[in-house]
Amino acid sequence: MPEETVEEQKVQENQEVQETPEAPEAQEVQETPEAQEIQEAPEVAAEESKKAGQIFVVCGKNEEMNQAAKDVLAKFNLEAILLGAHQEETGSILETSSLAASFAIVVLSDDDVATPQEEFPRNALLQPRSEEIFLLGFLAAKLGTKNIFLLTQPKQNFKQPFQHISLLYTSYDKENRWQFDLVRVLKSAGFDVDANKLI
User: Could you say which of 58, 115, 145, 159 is the most buried, measured as most Cβ atoms within 10 Å of its Cβ?
Assistant: First the structure.
């Protein structure tokens, strides 16, 4: 048989070369129902807590302020979940990933003395107990600062915690003007409350 010419060999080699198949297009990753459920869980829990009318109340030592916070929620048919150093719910709340409520009233009363050592005792300041300050930080991180209402002791020498964080402090007064501030904050958080019930 005649030997193949160089040109014939090149033609044959070119015919044998196959094009590299194109890589398949990346398919859009679809979230599994479980993943969707995890993402939606916080929002669903928040809406459920609003429907159930549950609100955290962090209690200090001032029983008058604690009771006032519980009484105003009762006027709106909202359930107070009590938290604090001597409340049974506190430990379980800190250990769970999903909270039973999406809003909190934190009562900050003058329970302890806080003064720099070099200024004690001439410049003594009053502040809430460390337990209430801790719960305030915990709930602010979990719920967001817009879902926290701080009811504070109306004293000049009262030290407000977290002064450099965007938190709104409302002074307690016996005429209950603070309750109308609470209504405004609750409405902005999505709760259906009527200020006429305070009259």
Answer: 58
